[in-house]
Amino acid sequence: MATAPYAQPMLRDGALDGKTIIVTGGGTGLGRAMTTYFLQLGANVVISSRKLDVLEATAAELRTQTGGKVLAVQCDVRKYDEVEKLVARTIEEFGRIDVLVNNAAGNFISPTERLSNKAFDVIVDIVLKGSYNCTLAVGKHWIKEQQPGTILNIVTTYASVGSAFVVPSATAKAGVLALTRSLAVEWAKYGIRSVAIAPGPFPTEGAWSRLFPEPLASKLDPAASVPLKRVGSHQELANLAAFLVSDFASYINGEVVTIDGGEWLNGAGEFNKLELLTSDMWDMIEKTMRR
Ligand SMILES: CCCCCCC/C=C/C(=O)SCCNC(=O)CCNC(=O)[C@H](O)C(C)(C)COP(=O)(O)OP(=O)(O)OC[C@H]1O[C@@H](n2cnc3c(N)ncnc32)[C@H](O)[C@@H]1OP(=O)(O)O
Ligand SMILES: NC(=O)C1=CN([C@@H]2O[C@H](COP(=O)(O)OP(=O)(O)OC[C@H]3O[C@@H](n4cnc5c(N)ncnc54)[C@H](OP(=O)(O)O)[C@@H]3O)[C@@H](O)[C@H]2O)C=CC1
């Protein structure tokens, strides 16, 4: 079957030539998808997370698949000293950093009152502390070297509106969104852009195992609440990420781009649920109203 247009690579060859990009959580899921496309577009990529074996395996596969330069560095984003080492190792290998993608995250569904304080901490620490740790370490480097840069934060649609049953994640992602918009203004004078992507449902093992465990998975179709009636493809998210970190997006700063097939608006509109009405019902309703 032919690949759908939205699942095809978008940018021209070499669009990211000469750029060095750090992708936290780059060994799996959407981080891996972005890394693959960045390499195909000519960037050098450093992938980091806690599990070195996963990172090394991904790096080896992507070297073969793309012919690009990818370095695996173990780093727990919650620990500032490890983040500083990640920055130093990147400079040592590639001589520069052009882009930071704050993608690493932790999440699981739970009624909030069931959470221990440690469970709340672990999510906020990975998502919010992890993002500001990396942003601070890379930002300080750019400012000291008088070098421009781009920060891309992967948030989610509920960063703006909140969500029940993923409260630590919603709290932390809202903070990351605030970080994005605040630094877009404060660090613009240094030539540093801050942007974000708010994805809706994109199937990954990491997200699905924690957000759609059984018996939920067999009861709930994640595509059903999306007006376009499908989930996202990894390539279309990678296309958007590559554009936002490329020089073609040089005038985009402080923006959060939602990519969710219209899902978040679906819950918002007062009358959206009328989608359930059949044509016959509408005939009846119209007749009654006109009378
Ligand atoms: C699907 C449609 C789209 C909607 C948008 C979705 C938006 C966001 C999506 C995502 O972010 S998906 C990313 C998912 N990926 C990950 O979470 C990967 C990394 N995750 C992990 O490593 C673990 O899941 C972790 C729990 C977050 C961290 O693991 P770690 O080993 O560091 O911690 P633990 O020691 O296991 O746990 C710490 C603390 O948390 C409690 N806990 C763990 N799991 C649960 C649970 N399911 N329910 C309640 N509590 C949990 C655990 O018991 C510990 O607390 P204490 O027992 O010490 O009090
Ligand atoms: N998939 C989806 O539908 C959606 C995803 N998102 C966002 O997309 C991003 C990627 O998620 P996805 O690919 O689905 O899930 P994954 O679970 O595949 O990705 C999460 C990554 O974060 C890494 N990570 C977790 N904790 C740490 C830590 N302390 N230090 C460093 N790295 C860490 C994990 O690696 P390791 O365990 O080796 O540390 C893993 O590679 C996340 O920001 C998520 O919130 C947003 C909306 C929807």
Task: Write up this protein.
The protein is of the alpha/beta class and 291 residues long. The protein has a single domain (10-290), classed as NAD(P)-binding Rossmann-like Domain (Rossmann fold, 3-Layer(aba) Sandwich). Helices cover 46% and strands 13% of the residues. The chain has eleven helices and seven strands. The chain has a seven-stranded parallel beta sheet, sandwiched between helices. It is globular. The mean pLDDT is 97. Ligand LOHRUJSQ is lined by residues 105-108, 110, 115-116, 118-119, 122-123, 156, 169, 200-201, 206-207, 210-211, 222. Interacts with PEX5, probably required to target it into peroxisomes. This is Peroxisomal trans-2-enoyl-CoA reductase. It is found in: Peroxisome. Its EC number is 1.3.1.38. It is an enzyme of class 1 (oxidoreductase).
List the helices and strands and how they pair.
Blueprint: E1 20-24, H1 29-40, E2 44-49, H2 52-66, E3 70-74, H3 80-94, E4 99-102, H4 117-145, E5 149-154, H5 158-161, H6 167-186, E6 192-199, H7 205-211, H8 216-219, H9 234-245, E7 256-259, H10 263-266, H11 279-290
Parallel strand pairs: 1-2, 1-4, 2-3, 4-5, 5-6, 6-7
Helix pairs in contact: 1-2, 1-9, 3-4, 4-6
The protein binds ligand LOHRUJSQ and NADPH dihydro-nicotinamide-adenine-dinucleotide phosphate.
